[in-house]
Amino acid sequence: MLDTASLQDTQQHQSITILGATGSIGTSTLNVIAMHPKRYSVYAISGHSQLHKLAKIAEQFAPQVIAVNNQEDALTLASLLPHDSTINICCGEQGLIDIASHKHVDTVMSAIVGAAGLLPTLAAVKAGKKVLLANKESLVMSGELFMDAVKTYKATLIPIDSEHNAIFQCLPTNYEYANPNASGISHLLLTASGGPFREAMPDELKNVTPDQACAHPNWDMGRKISVDSASMMNKGLEFIEAKWLFGIHEDNIKVVIHPQSTIHSMVQYKDGSVLAQMGNPDMRTPIAHALAYPQRIESGVEALNFFEQANFTFEAPEPERFPNLFLAMRASRLGQAATTALNAANEIAVEAFLAEQICFTDIFMVNQAVVEQMHSPTLNSIEDILSHDANCRALASEMVNTIISEATQC
Ligand code: NDP
Ligand code: MG
What we know:
The chain is an alpha/beta fold. The protein has helices at residues 24-34, 51-61, 71-80, 92-101, 118-126, 136-152, 162-170, 210-214, 223-231, 233-246, 284-292, 323-334, 336-354, 362-374, 382-406, and strands at residues 14-19, 40-46, 65-68, 88-91, 107-110, 130-133, 156-159, 185-192, 253-257, 263-269, 274-278. Helices cover 45% and strands 14% of the residues.
């Protein structure tokens, strides 16, 4: 992965598919693309519930194809486009797979949230595309199989997640996958803001609302990842993501709480050097970096002003405060079935929390119980992963239903 040699010709125009164009990452990607119309054009976009937003994006960026959820949404979207529009509308999972792997596409932004992103992202990988990976759930669900496919199909994988993009920027350009030792690397230091509840005591969190959980102090993101950030599950998913992206053992990844979110992550070398990547917390920076790599382009993000910067502080995460983070670290060591289970349980639990069906603290209870019960199977194929994912979702949904029927105080 991260094959720098194959990226030397990126001065050429790139035709891009944006999976999840209506979301937070999708919007930031379109903002960067709009600044560089000669360099990038949009071949296809996808959305799920926001059809009006898709039509507006289509008006500005003139994609050739738009992928939506189903036939009914395709008809609605068609009615929102001009009568003489020549844009093709496709739908369902196959539609996403088609726009991710189409021969006219050079680069795919993978920015669908959750497990729904796995198959389209894998399709882009198998078509040998340059894949800009925001959808961390793909790697959590299928780590080794995903990375094997990147290698087999000679895809180029560039991380968008700000921490992993930062680490990518701090690694040597000749970094040898899964061999940090050869590059003199001692540890990856994943920074975490600690989210909106960093200073809250665990027993204060039972009755927090979805809006409180989504009010991240530094980043503006979709609701699922915002809840994950508040519960620190996001950092847990990122721990697993880092393991697979860079081929690094769990012992060599540390999480460092850095509330200011200015240092996006660091690489610690054996000689005592620590390389950090910094900037204002704005996803247009990693997006612009990944789109243009190995060159640099304008992203629209303001330069970091060190003189206005508050002090940099650092804390170690405590297991009692952030149980989801430590559960994810444990799942990572247990293996693929455990991380697939964790992702599935977390998606179900977060959805139930956002729907105000369960408490914030129930998210951990559901996640832990599903990981404990479902970590054993050996998963050898994507079919195995999908079937395990479905079983874990069923178990998590059962638990959510039990919590709903038992709870009166939430
Ligand atoms: P959003 O919720 O803002 O956007 C999600 C996108 O996925 C939307 O385009 C949405 O469509 C689409 N979508 C939702 N459900 C489905 C589905 N079942 N099938 C197909 N498409 C679907 O999320 P973010 O942009 O915040 O996050 C996207 C991904 O990027 C996540 O994996 C997240 O972890 C990752 N990420 C995000 C960061 C951020 O700053 N936002 C930072 C790092 C990683 P619609 O809106 O039309 O319903
Ligand atoms: Mg991140």
